[in-house]
Every structure is written in C-alpha cells, then in structure tokens.
Fold each of these.
Amino acid sequence: MVKVRILGDEGAVAQAVARRVQRLLASAPSAVLGLPTGRTPVELYARLRRAHAAGRVDFSRATTFNLDEFLGLPPDHPGSYRSFMDEHLFRHVNLNPRRIHFLHGGAVDPDRECARYEAAIRRAGGIDLQIVGIGANGHIGFNEPGAALSADSHRARLEPGTRRSNAALFGGRASAVPREALSMGVGTILRAGAIVLMATGASKAPAIATALGGPVTTRMPASFLQLHHDVEFVLDREAAGTLR
Ligand code: GLP
C-alpha cells in the first residue's frame, strides 16, 4: 500500500523530504541514502545544505548512492549528474568523499561498471532510504517505459522526451544530451528499505495518477513502487492532480 502525502507547494514537499532525511540521520548516522537528480530535488538539497550549515544534520558517517548518470560523460563534465550533485549538495556538506558512490559515466566497460555498483550497494549493507523523482513518462532513475525493464543497474537508452527534459544541463540543447545512461534497475530501487517518491507540478500529474492507480506494468516503471512495503509519494497539489 503506497502512502500518499499531498502538500501545498514545492517548498513543502522539499521540506517534508528534508525532514525525513534529517530524522533518519539523527537516529541512524551511518544510514545509506539513495539520491536523485533533476529539477525536483533542487529545493530538497537547498534545505539540506541550510540544515547542515545550522548544525541540524550531520552527514559525516552517511553513505550515498546516486540513481543514475549519463553514459560517456566523465564525472567532472559540467552536464554530468555528478557535477549536479557536487554543486547542489556534496560540496556543501560533510559527507566523506569515500562514501559518495556514483555510476561512472566514463566507464570503458559499462556492464562491468554496473556490476561493480551493485556489489558496492551490497557491501554497504543496502540502501536504507531511496529518494526518487519521476519522469513525465513515468520513468524512475533512467528506467524508461518499454516492453521490459531491467532489475539491476544497467545501460539504458533515453527517450527523446527524456533527453529534452534534461537539456537544461547542456545549455538548453537536447541534441547535446547523451543518448544513453547508466541507471539503477527497478530491482535495485525496490531492494531499498524505504522509498520516497517526490513529484511537483502539473506535468507529473498523469504519471502519478497512473503509477498509483493503474496496473503494475513495464509501460509505467513507477507503478512497480506499488510492490514495495514502505513507500511514500510526497506530492504538491499540482502533481497530485485529481487524486483524493
Ligand atoms: C531525469 C532523471 C530522473 C528524474 C526525472 C525527473 O531524467 N533521470 O532520475 O527523477 O528525470 O526529473 P525532474 O525532476 O527534472 O522533473
């Protein structure tokens, strides 16, 4: 049963998820976090930075694993998700760099890189709290809708719409967005102890309604979250659309 929380606006969504991270790290300082990129978590990371500066959250013993990365981009490329995380969170908080984990977009052997990542997650004891966003087409991480989904971390081909929605990272040019990525699989996400999906804005409302109310299907990757025992959707009014 998916828990659903509908809040007034994007700031309230960010605040609720930031509080959840703060509570987790207060009770379990060495917790393992799964982290997303995209526009949606920008405000979440701003709040965590502020909370850290005010001494309200300590990341010194925490471990992080990011969901996905563009294939072919080295970590220091300005369009990489790693650069996004450095800018929005990592550079500003006291995470131990050795406990920050990322799929390496520049890996020469992507399959081996994905196997390494799965092994690193296992070695860390699994992800305690996985935070995800959702694409307008229902993707989570870079698990795009299709005839089949991958359980584990894998190499993924991006839909044109997904490349367009990532264009801002590449000077607004969708053609500059890589065609492929590395991503945790749906199974990687479902193995987390708890999952929070955050979504804001009207463009997400149709995907949210189908992910929650429709059948579990590879055509709507976020629908697989219905199978998890501890999942919460934290939505603003617009993303909640007509849900009641
Ligand atoms: C991107 C990312 C996802 C993210 C989603 C939504 O392509 N790969 O991890 O959740 O799309 O992005 P946004 O928050 O910018 O709408």
Amino acid sequence: MKVHIYRDKAQAGQASALLLAAKIIENPDCVLGMATGSTPLPTYESLVELYNQGIIDFGRVRTFNLDEYVGISRSHEQSYFRFMFDNLFSKINIKPENVAVPNPVSANLQDDCLSYDAAIKAAGGIDIQVLGIGNNGHIAFNEPGRTFTFATHIVELTENTIEANKRFFSSIDDVPKRAITMGIGSIMQAKEIVMIATGEAKAEAVKAMIDGQIDPQCPASILQLHPAVTVFLDEGAAALLSR
Ligand code: PGA
C-alpha cells in the first residue's frame, strides 16, 4: 500500500482526483468503480473542476458503484443512485447508459447480485476503484464478520452502520436495514484501488487496515493483499498510524 497523508480533506480529495484524472487521460475508455458517502465528495468536486477546465473527458468512461440501499426508490434523496447524479454524474459528460448502480427495488435481488458481477466482468473489470472506509472498518457494505464474502450480495446492515448513517435520514427508523454490495472479491479484482479516509473518527479503522492483521473483523485489512492500493488520508485519519 502506498500511503499519502495530507493536511486536510480538501487536499486529500484533490490528490485522489488527480490520480483518477491521470487514469482517465491515459485510458479514456476506463472503467471506474465509484463510492458514495461524505468522504469522496471533495474528490468528486475536484473531478468536476478538472472536467470544467477541459482537462478530462468522461464521454467514454463507464462506472460501477459499490453498493446501494435495498428498499428505497432510485429517486429517494438518500439513494446512492441519486447521490451519484447530484454530486457527480449530472455535472460531467458521462453517458447515463454508461453508469451502473445496483438496483434498490428489484423483484429478484439474488439474480441482480449475479448479473452485477457479470456486468463488471463483461466491461473488462474495474480499472480503478474508489473506496471509503467505515468507522468499523467496512468497505462498501462488507461489514465486520467471521468471513470475507467474495461476490456481490445482500447484507443486513450492522447497528454501527445504521447509527452512522442516521444523520442523513429524518429518524433512525427510516434508515434502510439492508443493502446490496459488491463483495470483497469484486473489490479485490479491481486493477487499482484508491482508498480515501478523512477525519479522526476513521483513525482506528485506518490503523487496523494498514497496521493490523488481515482479519474479516476489519474488512478493509484485506487491501494489504492487493498489489496496487493508494491510500489518501488527512492528518486526522492518520493520527494513530505508526509512521
Ligand atoms: P463516509 O462513509 O464517507 O460517509 O464516512 C464511508 C463508508 O462508510 O464507507
């Protein structure tokens, strides 16, 4: 893992966006893996700026998102589909048919899980995957557990995650209890990974990811086995690392 520590989240966002921009310049047909949450927002803002400056072009880029809540509509203001359009896709020239976010209201979720992984494979795999990390060490919605789950699957969200996400909903009862998420295998098959973590609340999870044992209790620790991970941290998220 290459670890870069920046002064604040704006700098970490800018730096991670530059790495993604370089990939898009190098390969205009690249397949990006996208993440939601507050962490990648500065990255997406910087990507929009680079697009507005004419430095990058999303005309042939394809994307796959990591995860989505189950049971809320795509137009719900907290759906990840909506998040991606509000914060990135509506501000760049990506073609709507080139973006994929798991379907939150499918009649057959299990089939959808299989077809999501198949679609990633058919696109040639993910060239570069953006990841955040949960306070509990989750990546996408792969929650701490006894094993790593390989493929895209349906998860019951942990209390910790429901608690962390309730800030976006009017009450904790409105937070969906299930999600569809790429599995650890789907993520590890990405050719390259950009992990972004900012803020002191992430410091323990970041330490476990980088300095800890590889353990499904900290799903992000599996990234130690990936050959091409670049970690972008701010001072807060890096506070507990042994340097
Ligand atoms: P956050 O979520 O960016 O909103 O902190 C990250 C995550 O849970 O993966």
